[in-house]
Amino acid sequence: MNPDQNQYSIDYLNQIAPPEKKPAMNNKMFFLVIGGGLLIAIVVGILALSSGSGGPKEQLQTLSVRLGTLKTISDASQKSIKSGALRNANSNLQISLSNANRDIAEPLKANGITAEGVSEKVKKAENGEALTKKLEDARLNAVFDRIYAREMGFQLDKTITLMKTIHNSTSSKSLKTFLETTSTNLDPIKKQFNDFNSEMN
């Protein structure tokens, strides 16, 4: 075969071959864009978790303050209770709340929460003023036992639900253990209050 013919064939093939596509962006740029997007997503996720809008930290603060408030109210209410059965249920509640307020100290510390660090919003929401006023009105109207059983049953139900929510959102072993123990202790007392209230209605 003539060498000139061979050269012609190669040139001809080069001409009819489709032009090479240039990549829109090189590999380095592609990985930089993807990496930047992932970094932004991670930062946004961390900010969302650590924000004070009902996140795990705020829920734990709420639980801590609520347990203290309920202990104060249950202590103050014991002298106003007429029913022996309700007085017994309240006595059990006082013991459980006393233990809970003692035992929550370690999980709070492990999660970086101090009494001084509790937000004013949480303190105001859980100060128990509205409940205290309602119970005082009930005492003055001679219906304390019924109102107390109803309100404390409701408060315990809310508290146990909050503990379950925190339990599902934390990986802290000490906190999970505390929540499980406290919930187990409070659940039968909640039932005592609810049963008493059902009998009164």
Description:
With 201 residues, this protein is mostly helical. 79% of the residues lie in helices and 0% in strands. It has one domain: Ferritin (Up-down Bundle). It contains 9 helices and no strands. Helix 3 (56-77) runs antiparallel to helix 4 (84-103), helix 3 (56-77) runs antiparallel to helix 8 (144-169) and helix 8 (144-169) runs antiparallel to helix 9. The radius of gyration is 32 Å and the shape is elongated. It starts with a helix and ends with a helix.
**Any idea what the shape is?**
elongated
Number of helices: 9
- Assembly classification: single chain
Radius of gyration: 32 Å
Order of helices and strands: HHHHHHHHH
Number of domains: 1
Unreliable spans are: 43-54
Report the mean per-residue pLDDT as an integer: 83
Strand % is under 5%
The secondary-structure class comes to mainly alpha
Reported by name, the CATH topology is Ferritin
- CATH class, anyone? Mainly Alpha
Helix-residue proportion: over 70%
Distance between the terminal alpha carbons, to the nearest Å?
Answer: 112 Å
Largest sheet: none
How many beta-strand segments? 0
Query: What is the level-2 CATH architecture name?
Result: Up-down Bundle
